[in-house]
Amino acid sequence: MRNVTRRPLMIAAGAMAGTWFTGGAKAQQKEILIGSQCDRTGPTQLVGTVFCPAVQDYVNLINAKGGIGGYQIRINELDNNYQVPPAIEEYERHKQEGIVSTLIWGTPQAEALNPRLERDHIPGTSPGFGSAAAANGIKYPYLFPLAATYWSQAAAAIKFAKDKLGDSLKGKKIAYLYYDNPAGLEPLPILKELQDIEGFDLRVFAVPPPGVEMSAQVLDISQRYRPDFVLAHLFGRSPSVMLKAMKQSGYPLSKVLGFVWASSEADILAAGGWPVAQGYYTMQFVGVGDDYPVIKEIKAMYQKEGKPPPKEMATSVYYNRGIQDAAVHIEAVRNALTLTGGKPPTGADVKKGFEMIKDFTLGGLLPPLQVTAADHEGGGWVQIFQVKGDKMVKATEWFQGYRELVLRKVNSTS
Amino acid sequence: MFYRESGVFKTSYAADMALLPLPSTRWAVAALLLLFVAVVPLVSDEYALSILSLILIAVVGAIGLNILVGYTDQVSIGHGAFMSVGAYTAANLIVRMHAPFWIAVPAGGLMAALIGVVVGIPSLRIKGLYLAISTLAAQLIIEWVINHVSWVSGGTQASIQVPPPSVFGVVLQRPWQIYLFLLAFVVLAIVGTQNLIRGRIGRAFIAVRDRDVAAEIIGIDIFRYKLLAFAISSFYAGVTGVLYSYYLGIANYEQFQLDVSINFLAMVIIGGLGSTLGPIFGAIFVTLLPIVTRRVLESAGGLFFAASDLSAVIPSLRLVIFGGLIIFFLVVEPEGLNRLWRNIRNYFRTWPFSY
Prior knowledge:
The complex is a heterodimer. By secondary structure, chain A is of the alpha/beta class. Helix content of chain A is 46%, strand content 14%. Chain A has helices at residues 2-28, 45-64, 84-97, 107-120, 150-164, 182-185, 188-198, 215-225, 238-249, 265-270, 293-304, 316-340, 347-355, 403-412, and strands spanning 31-38, 72-79, 101-103, 124-125, 143-144, 173-179, 201-207, 229-233, 256-258, 281-284, 383-388, 391-394. In chain A, the strands form two sheets. Chain A has a seven-stranded mixed β-sheet, with helices on both faces. Chain A has a five-stranded parallel β-sheet with strand order 2-1-3-4-5, with helices on both faces. In chain A, helix 9 (238-249) links the parallel strand 8 and strand 9 (256-258). In chain A, helix 2 (45-64) crosses helix 12 and helix 5 runs parallel beside helix 7 (188-198). The longest helix of chain A has 27 residues, at 2-28. The termini of chain A are far apart. By secondary structure, chain B is mainly α. Chain B folds into two domains: 1-8 and 21-43, no CATH class; 44-349, ABC transporter involved in vitamin B12 uptake, BtuC (Orthogonal Bundle). Chain B has a two-stranded antiparallel ribbon with strand order 1-4. Chain B has a two-stranded antiparallel sheet with strand order 2-3. The model of chain B has no long low-confidence stretch (mean pLDDT 89). Classes of the chains: A alpha/beta, B mainly alpha.
């Protein structure tokens, strides 16, 4: 009697285990695995909760269209909580699962993973964070920023200010308002060199972490220094605090340019909504808004499933950056497949695939990247958007600032 | 059952004072050592070794913090910063002077000990929460210095790349080599603490912990021993920082921020204050629990959530479960995992013939 009742249970358990195993075996067939590290719960969750779903959406879109060269793409997302030990553990797990490339999340994580990427020949991307020196593909062979580093951003910001203030910066006053951490300090050497070249007056204003109080600095800028242009390199909650404080002090936001992590719709909403931020310039390394073919395709994909478009699209700055990060990986895999002639690519193949990315713009969403074995930044392109009404409007096309100077700096830094 | 004191007769002072007086403990320790030195590196893959290595690093730091918090009852939430002091000292020595590991590791520890003594000075006047806040100040000051003094932090973005250590001319690059390297330091840390605690210094620490006024009256120099506790504990923290940067290949200040200090404090409290085994349990618990929770959620979560939502749900749910389990274990046994282990052991001591 006992045996009889037990048997169905055992069969069920066996069947479950069986499906798991076959599921695992299927994964071996025509699938390419990409690792993704995310932060949906840690200090950068404002970005992560929008960025990570976008990555998934793009991969689903590619798979719905039949994958790449007959392969389905699988992204295995693990949450590193913006901490280093989990990032190491997750990378090792991804490696064991057989990833060909990985999306990194976080500056210290990128720094800590870099020696491992090199050892294991697995390329990783760090768009918009990590050290600017990683643009040097000779010294950082397996790390790909693939977006304007803080050096490129600083150079582009000065070029934009120059164009705006009438083609000469001689005698003009520029304020640099920055979050006081290594990332905030990083653009300083570039700004100082440009100060010598262009002859403007530069004054720096540090905001100590956590950056939620800066009325003193903003008053100093708006009442005492009265600069012609302000560059704001801020993170987290601090951009919204800056917008509010600037508004209160009466300094026109049309003379303020926020760097890439001070430039999302979420910052503007946190500052009190669109009316507060009118005229504010934001720097972007990926296009803003939903007027791009790939975004429309994702909306159509959701529609076909009978679902409304994802709510994350409302924060298009971070959503589109998630699309960019996923897209460059898949483009690299596509390039790698042409190299291997359709055989499953290795990490080293995908690295070469990254270095073949050229004029891959997804209909204007991405800049005209030119990745080479030496330049893993792809040119350091940015675009400036301005807040007008209740959206961000394109103020410039894709451009680079003082490229030779930035490249010289990249190549001379160890 | 197997673990029994009866029938062990000590006939000499040396036998009485031995670190492991019972033959059964000696066998157990020898077996454990054999397991971790010989068996584990052979049977583990790289993924398992990476988790083990992270645990080993955490163990050194937690044992060190326990000397301060558990044995001397002084609170420190600046241990993350002491680790960064060790890490940057060693990284600078390694990169600028090509120091070998047997100089870099103690040097990092000593520098952290020096800073730790300075930070520990307020402990002579203040206790408990007040001391916690003054060590918090140390955390912030050290972070600021690393951030702004490029002579200390070098490189770009305040990070210095550290080449792997080499032992007897062999560069330790394979995961199992690094694992054994770390394991050696863990053994040193455990043996060192055990000997420290049962000696004169350890007894003085415990006297200070139990009641510092009484300790002073029986002739213990509080000034000296409180600072010594800070020095030794920070030394361990510094060594942890060096090991950490060896393991990662980089020294970066963002790896040693306030949350790291809190994490280590959590390890010591969950594991059990005032024991050597406690912080080891705590380090294993805090490092391993999130990983295990995620694995469980990945295989069982599909029963409760749609597959497409799973990647969004798991990270949040993991934090909830992690927090819940910490509360659960502390409610079950407020004195930590070590006490839980001792209760189990005591139960089996007379099993199956309890009185």
